[in-house]
Amino acid sequence: MDSLQRESKQKVQVFQHVPFEDLGSIAPWLNKQGILPGYTRFFAGDRLPALTQVDALIVMGGPMSVNDEEKFPWLIPEKQYIREAIRQDIPVLGICLGAQLIASALGARIYTNPVKEIGWFPVQALSASNHVFNFPAEFMAFHWHGQTFDMPEGAVPLARSYACAHQAFQLKQNVIGLQFHLETTPAGVLSLIENCRDELRPEPYIQSEQELRKVSASNYYTSNKLMNAILNYLL
Description:
Layout: H1 3-8, E1 12-16, H2 26-32, E2 38-41, E3 56-59, H3 75-87, E4 92-95, H4 97-105, E5 110-125, E6 138-149, E7 156-161, E8 168-171, E9 175-178, H5 186-196, H6 209-213, H7 217-234
Parallel strand pairs: 1-2, 1-3, 3-4, 4-9
Antiparallel strand pairs: 5-6, 5-7, 7-8, 8-9
Helix pairs in contact: 3-4
C-alpha cells in the first residue's frame, strides 16, 4: 500500500460555524493527500460524529464568541467534544474561533482584546524548539478577530503580534491553535467582507475594505505555504 492510499484512510472532521468561513487553502492540501473530509456544520444543525470515526479535527472560525452558549447552545457539546478529542490524543487544529474554542474547552478564559485586529499584519514567533512547530521569526498573516484567549494550561505560546499578545499556541505534539488565518484565499477575504463589513471601522488595527481588496497574490501564497507546513506537521 503506498503512502497516498494510507493517507486516504484518514478521517478528518471539519467543524464549520458559518457558511462563509470554509477551509480555504486547506481543502486542496487535503485533496492532494487523498483525504475527503467530513463536515459538522453547526449552522445547519449537523450532529457530532462518534469520536471513534475521527482521526483528526479541524475547527474553523466564525463571528460568534465562544461565550455565547445561550445564543448558540451547540457550543457546549462542541467544546466537550474538542476536550475529549484532545484527551484521546487526536490531532486538533483550531483557527481563530477554533483556537478560542480549544482554549475554552481546556479551561482558559476568552475575552475582548484591547483592540480589534482585521487585515494583514505582521506576527512574531515566540518559540524556537525541536518540541514545537517553529514559525518564521516574523511573517504576515490575515486577521479578523476582536477577542483573544489566555494560554491553556500546559500550552506553549508560539506567536504574538503588536495588537494581540496571544496569537498561537501548541499543546503536546498534536494540538495547535491559531488566532490568525493562514488558510485564507482572496475569495475567503471577499466573503468575510460581504458578511462582516460592519466591522471595518477606522481603527488603528483595522484595514479598510479598499486595503483588503488590493493585497498582492504573494501574501496569500506565502500564508498558504505556511499553512501547508502546519498541516504536514500535524497530520
